[in-house]
Amino acid sequence: AALASVGEKTQIAVLDADRPGVVRRNIALGDASATDLNWAGSDRLLVTVMVTEKLAGGYDFPFLRLIAVDVSTGLSRVVDPNSRGVYAGEVLYTAPAGDWALVSSQD
pTM of the entire structure? Predict the structure, then answer.
């Protein structure tokens, strides 16, 4: 997987290792930017994204979230939807089969 810029937006290009130059899937991140990519098995990608929101007073406030992406279907979900902290999403360990991962989170 590689990060690519399309205009001012970031996307993830998932490449096919058996056929260099062939893109399996493009994953658009919208206004978010990826700060880390980790494979969980051969078909799941763990993406730490950073999103910035405006706080009262007009200050930009960045926070991180971990997203799991099924590369075959393109479906994604937030790994820890209950995390309300600024920092969430450091992948500490991923099982080789990709069926579980140990991640840090903040509540």
Answer: 0.82
